[in-house]
Amino acid sequence: MPFTVDKLGVLIAALAAVAAFLPFAAFRANRIVLGEAKGLFAALPGWEAAVLAIVLAAGIGIALFRTPTLWRLATSLVVLALLFVAIGHAGSFLTPPGDKIARVSPGAGFWLLIFAFALLAADAIARLKLKPWTRIGVLAAVALFFAVLLGSGTLNDLSILREYANRGDTFWREAQTHLALALGSLAAATVAGIPIGILCHRSDAWRAPVLNVLNAIQTIPSIALFGLLIAPLAWVAANIPGASAVGISGIGAAPAMVALFAYSLLPVVANTVVGLDGVPPAANDAAKGMGMTDWQRLTTVEFPLAFPVILTGIRIVLVQNIGLATIAALIGGGGFGVFVFQGVGQTAMDLVLLGAVPTVALAFAAAVVLDATVEMVSPKDTRRD
């Protein structure tokens, strides 16, 4: 029986073919000089490179042709795990013994291979139509793998881990700040946005003006909005008694929190309006027939039915704010953006990665968990088959 080519597999094979001509790792004598590109067989001992090449070839073959979906998922996860182990070994192999200054970074070929097989894994998960708890379990397993990998010291000779070793205390302090900005602005937007959304749903006179203002805020570039808030908040801190004592100032976390709150309102308000608009009229009619008050209908009928749509808006806000909180570092707000902008200023890309990688990981994890949660709270007839 002839093999049938998979369309996505063709793309993955093409990406892997391009990755073969790109460096697997880069060696630098110190953190700021230009790197020396190293191909797969130069970055690893010969036998390790050969094993990885064979596994990659097998993975490409399974991806290229239409194979069972479980095979595709298992293959993608195995290849991804081996790639991360291999890049850790490349760091140890390329770093001279006792050298604390040299830096080994993943090369473009490594990142392209990660992207290709992550794409294969995502496609396999989508085809399998995994249940919400199963998807969360897969995410937990991936997190456990990285925890074990980091704890084992396999990646310690990579440049990003060396940057972390020099900034461990600062890293966790900025991580707390980043989460506080993202989650705090989300909580404030949820508390304020849901009542505003209910008001807009109930009153056509309020709906258009409120949504237009919130849409206008969304069009302001994030850096510009952070900057616009410096002057008014500085005035508040200087002229209103007690404002400075509670942390309000022209720079720092206060303008960052206000800006993130402003960006967060539109998704929460709009999804609340859409969710309440989508409540079947028959459900409201039945509630009225039972003698329920307006408040009882809202809390026991309308809001529970609209909740999955509202939660989708909260999911959008959380993923958005995890990314936007990075910009807060420009006005002294802290967060992972501190490392990103320090790295840009020092031409140290490994320091940039120290801020960027956890930001991306947090956003991805938040999206997976909240997507699964939305599906779990959705009515059964609206879930994925």
Strand order, main sheet: write it out. Answer: 2-1-3
Shape: flat
CATH class of the largest domain: Mainly Alpha
Number of H- or I-type helical stretches: 16
Radius of gyration: 25 Å
What structural class is derived from the secondary structure elements? Answer: mainly alpha
* Overall domain count: 2
Instruction: Predict the CATH topology of the largest domain.
Output: MetI-like fold
Strand content: under 5%
The termini sit apart by 31 Å
Transmembrane segments: 44-65, 77-96, 108-126, 138-155, 175-200, 212-237, 243-266, 298-318, 324-344, 351-370
Main location: membrane
GO biological process, one term: glycine betaine transport
Membrane topology: Multi-pass membrane protein
Fold and architecture overview:
The chain is 74% helix and 3% strand. It has 16 helices and 3 strands. It has helices at residues 7-20, 40-43, 46-64, 69-94, 108-128, 132-152, 159-166, 168-202, 204-219, 222-228, 230-239, 253-277, 281-289, 294-324, 337-346, 349-377, and strands at 25-28, 36-38, 103-106. A 3-stranded antiparallel beta sheet has the order 2-1-3. A hairpin with a 7-residue loop joins strand 1 and strand 2. Helix 1 (7-20) runs antiparallel to helix 3 (46-64) and helix 4 runs antiparallel to helix 5 (108-128). It holds the Pfam family BPD_transp_1. It is found in: Cell membrane. Residues 175-370 form the ABC transmembrane type-1 domain.
